[in-house]
Amino acid sequence: MRIAVFQRGERSRHKIEGVRRYGEGIELQVFSVPEALPELIDNPEDFLPEELEADLVLDYLYHPDLSEHLLAVAKRKGIPVIAPGRRLKGAITPPTCCGLGDSKEAGEYGRQFGTPELEVEVEEGRVKSVRVKRGAPCGATWAAAEKVRGLPVEEALHRFALEVQFVCRAAAGYEVGQVRKAPLHFAGEVHIAAFKRALER
């Protein structure tokens, strides 16, 4: 699967590195625009490539003029766009990267990255292993899985979310879309929910 990633400065380096490290069968092409941008951009095409060849676009531009232009280019080519944490009509807009639910449009990327799915093995009341079937593109899910191995189950449940939040780069202090919590807290909660589901199974 070919994914075109658009980022502002190096803001999304950790997500790019996470997909490269934990993804399988995914080829990334990264496009970066300057970190400092004017508030209004009259000619967004000056910042973005003329041609777009990909199966999926990840939009981490965080600039309405650039994101709308990118979405229009992608739509003409029938390429789905994921733009986490934003309201961008026509794009897939989960509240956070780890809030991406099942999406056929997201293809192989959506199978491997998004709302976490885990397999937890418990032995004598302690976590023996945590297998990540699907996780956050920043790699937080995999990092947290390593940290809770060997802990008592109850302790591991809460520690798992904290370890995710230590790695997570989501904002800690504002609301996103319909989520009434900071994105960082949302990320912790979806990981706790995934851990509980795994324990129940």
Show the helix and strand layout:
Layout: E1 2-8, H1 13-22, E2 27-33, E3 56-60, H2 64-76, E4 81-82, H3 107-112, E5 117-123, E6 126-134, H4 140-147, H5 153-167, H6 183-200
Parallel strand pairs: 1-2, 1-3, 3-4
Antiparallel strand pairs: 5-6
Walk me through what this model shows.
The protein is α/β, with parallel strands linked by helices. It folds into two domains: 2-93, Rossmann fold; 117-200, Sufe protein. Chain: A (Alpha-Beta Complex). The chain has helices at 13-22, 64-76, 107-112, 140-147, 153-167, 183-200; strands spanning 2-8, 27-33, 56-60, 81-82, 117-123, 126-134. Strands 2-1-3-4 form a four-stranded parallel beta sheet.
How would you briefly describe this protein structure?
The chain has about 200 residues and is an alpha/beta fold.
Main sheet: strand order: 2-1-3-4
The description of the largest β-sheet is: 4 strands, parallel
CATH C-level category of the largest domain: Alpha Beta
Domain module count: 2
Helix count, DSSP H or I runs of 4 or more residues? 6
Helix percentage range: 25-40%
CATH topology (fold) name of the largest domain? Rossmann fold
Number of strands: 6
Q: What series of H and E elements makes up the topology? A: EHEEHEHEEHHH
CATH architecture annotation name of the largest domain: 3-Layer(aba) Sandwich
Overall 3D shape: elongated
The averaged pLDDT comes out at 92
